[in-house]
Amino acid sequence: MHDEQSLKQTDKLQNRSFVTIKNSREFRSVFDTAVSVANRYLVVYAAVRKTKNGKENNRYGITVSRKVGKAVVRNKVRRRIREIMRFHTKSEKSVVLFGVDIVVVARAAAAAATFDELREAYGRALQKSVKQSIRAEV
């Protein structure tokens, strides 16, 4: 019975949503060290972190400035980006390895974009930025 509980706890941790970047110091370190790729709707920053065991969680951050719109619009864009990130994190075709910090900055055009346009823009930008950051590390 005790083993079942520990298995359930482990399963919960693995199914948990992604680890987020919360404070400005962490955001600043990503902006300073990351490779950025921009498109019409988003700017994606990807920075490979030095990890001890190579299996650290990826960390994700989202920034949406007041240029995008008022609070309701910014929150809508933020929710869409968060869902897109969650989908890409659980996707089997994910290009992201372990130990990568990813920050997405929404541009003003993101407010008028559809969910599918944002998903496509994020996928392309993420793929390019991760490839470039890995090349920069080597």
As for the number of domains, it is 1
CATH class: Alpha Beta
What is the number of beta strands? 5
Trace the largest sheet across and list its strands. 1-4-5-3-2
What structural category arises from helix and sheet content? alpha/beta
Largest sheet, in brief, is: 5 strands, mixed
Terminal-residue CA separation: 47 Å
Mean of the pLDDT scores? Answer: 82
Shape: globular
CATH architecture tag: 2-Layer Sandwich
Number of helices: 4
Give helix and strand order, one letter per element, not per position. HEHEEEHEH
Low-confidence stretches: 6-16
- Helix percent reads 40-55%
- CATH T-level fold name: Ribosomal Protein S5, domain 2
Strand content: 15-25%
What does this protein look like?
The protein has four helices and five strands. It is α/β, with parallel strands linked by helices. It has a single domain, classed as Ribosomal Protein S5, domain 2 (2-Layer Sandwich), CATH 3.30.230. The protein has a five-stranded mixed beta sheet, with helices on both faces. Helix 3 crosses helix 4 (115-137). It is globular, with a radius of gyration of 16 Å. Mean pLDDT is 82; it is low at 6-16.
